[in-house]
Amino acid sequence: MTGSSGAGPVTSGAGAGAGEAAIVGLGITEVGKVYGRTTADFARDAVRLAVADAGLALADVDGLLVSVGLSGGVGMELAVRLGLRDLRMLSVINAWGATAGAQIQLAAMAVSTGMAETVVCVHADAPLAEPGASAGAAYSGGAALRTGFGSAMAANGFAGANPMYALAARRHMEAYGTNDDHLAAVAVGQREWAAMNPLAQMRTPITVAEHHASRWVVEPFRLLDCCLVSNGAVAVVVTTAERSAHLRQPPVHLWGFGQGHPGYVLERGCELGLHTGAVSSGATAMRMAGITAADVDVCQLYDCYTYTVIVTLEDYGFCAKGEGGPFAASGALAPGGSLPTNTGGGQLSSFYLWGMTPVSEAVIQARGQAGERQIDRHDVVLVSGNGGTLDHHATLVLSPHRRS
């Protein structure tokens, strides 16, 4: 399997400091329906796994960036629980699904400027309760806080992510002709990748017909259009490119990064559903990396819903606006396709830990450690994170090679 790129990356337009940071450690706890452990338990384990994976000790860590999902239960006190002392950087960051990308960007800037040398970024969550136990945390979309005219949405059932993303997806479908078969192609292709991933929660192959037969959640989304819910944690270690060459694992160099925050307001003229923050986030990251979309070999895109993959592909420039659905239906994203995408199964079939899901698979692919699902050509790996209802976006461009 190969990517679509035949051209090497260009070097013009690279931002200052680009290529001076690398991911050198990856820690993934057991993920999925894992009970009897708290968010803090998962976070501690993921940090320890990532540091050990890099061939380092906790005493080497001088920066910690913490992210926690819907369940809460861990924050900056994680540093003390890990026994970390004299840190030069410590913070809790939240941009929803764009958080992992933002964490790694901040860590890269810190190590590139000398603010810190070894920064761990961790995301943990434990929203699932054991069957028969009290329910875990649930996201209400702020419904309980809405008053006045703004409460009309909550009163009509618009609470949480599902109905808002359904509105965005329906608008894209009405504007560009995106249809159920296009959505199904994303789900089916990613399940093919998941079948080759021992960490994936859902590994049984599915068909387009089975996608169409799955129950409605919120039209136009069926069950197989929606991401999983998972307990667990993922952590990565970021350090300088120079230091990375002397550590245990093959370094994954950070060539470029960017963010985009459209600030949508639900009123006339709003482009919610048609465009996302990937437009500006991707342009910034690719410019810094000195590449174009044609140079990307592998994509790891935030896939809270099948639709999100389609609109993000368009906004990054892998296909024209409105052609994301047919592009997915062509088989381009699935095993053997021209643009391998979400090669671990993504959040639809592997596990859901916000933006750390695509980050973790990107690191595995860039290292060449994906086993059966490894992409032969993986010189340029693009990663996206998406938060809110397409409100926040973070992009990373990663490579096993250091920028010249």
Account of the 3D structure:
The protein has 404 residues and is an alpha/beta fold. 31% of the residues lie in helices and 17% in strands. It is built from 13 helices and 11 strands. The protein has helices at residues 39-53, 78-81, 99-113, 151-155, 161-176, 180-194, 208-213, 241-244, 278-289, 306-316, 324-329, 346-349, 356-367; strands spanning 21-28, 63-68, 89-92, 118-125, 216-218, 221-222, 232-240, 252-260, 298-300, 381-387, 392-399. It has a 9-stranded mixed beta sheet. A two-stranded antiparallel ribbon has the order 5-6. β2, α2 and β3 (89-92) form a beta-alpha-beta unit. α6 packs across α10 (306-316). The longest helix has 16 residues, at 161-176. The protein is globular.
Brief write-up:
With 404 residues, this protein is α/β, with parallel strands linked by helices. The chain has helices spanning 39-53, 78-81, 99-113, 151-155, 161-176, 180-194, 208-213, 241-244, 278-289, 306-316, 324-329, 346-349, 356-367; strands at 21-28, 63-68, 89-92, 118-125, 216-218, 221-222, 232-240, 252-260, 298-300, 381-387, 392-399.
What is this structure's SSE topology?
Elements: E1 21-28, H1 39-53, E2 63-68, H2 78-81, E3 89-92, H3 99-113, E4 118-125, H4 151-155, H5 161-176, H6 180-194, H7 208-213, E5 216-218, E6 221-222, E7 232-240, H8 241-244, E8 252-260, H9 278-289, E9 298-300, H10 306-316, H11 324-329, H12 346-349, H13 356-367, E10 381-387, E11 392-399
Parallel strand pairs: 2-3, 2-4, 9-10
Antiparallel strand pairs: 1-7, 1-8, 4-7, 5-6, 8-11, 10-11
Helix pairs in contact: 6-10
